[in-house]
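Mods, move this if it's the wrong board.
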Amino acid sequence: MFGKLVKHELYASGRVMLPVSAVLVAISLLTNLAGRTLLSGRHNFSFLNLMCILVLAAFFLGIFAIGVVAVCVMIKRFRDSMLTDQGYLTNTLPVSVHALVVSRLLTAMIYFILVGLVIMLAVLLAGAGTELYQQAAAGIREVLKDEYFREVIQSAELWKMVLQLGVTGMLSMIASCLMMYLAMSIGYSSANHKGLFSFIAYFVISIATQTVVNAISLPLLRIIEDGNRLFALNFTAVILLTLAEAAIYYLGTVHMLKHKLNLA
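Not the wrong board. Structure tokens:
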């Protein structure tokens, strides 16, 4: 049943995210053509140059917009399926609240990762074949030939740091989603002004979290004087604190949905 929930959420979110992703890729191809036109200097038509500049602007706006759309879709799917009239149907499904929350969270993570991959693809397509792209590729090849760089790449410490950064980034995304879920669950437990209370709850939770994190982390950082130990401690502390945040947000969301849900 959990697999069916994830499949349904992927389909529901994909109706928006996949077309938006396709549009960004299409704009990146136009951006490549526009960039070649501007860099060639062979065209003096002001209208053509203006159109090329507008395409470039649309590309950069599109990169920003696809991230905003991903967040909005994540919020809307949770609200519509769990906190509005559709919640009556959702809560009749033979699954636990945990499965409902995790399926939406997993779907959000999949599409966030997809957005990151689409942005990288769009940037590559936008610059492919241009002189700037060729210069960047030549620079990367030169760096790869450097003996010191090869030693750095083969260093276990580097890959450990990359793994820690990846884990930290993923946990941060999960915690951010769960914080929004908790804020909405709190806001929609009220009888009126549900959206407003969700907005207020989000900022209260955010401020409270930052206050607690600072209260825990700052004293620890004062104790450690050695730079390497401080660097390692920072990663470990961030991962543990982010994991704790995510767990608290998750348990709070499940509690609100189980005991405080108000679909009226």
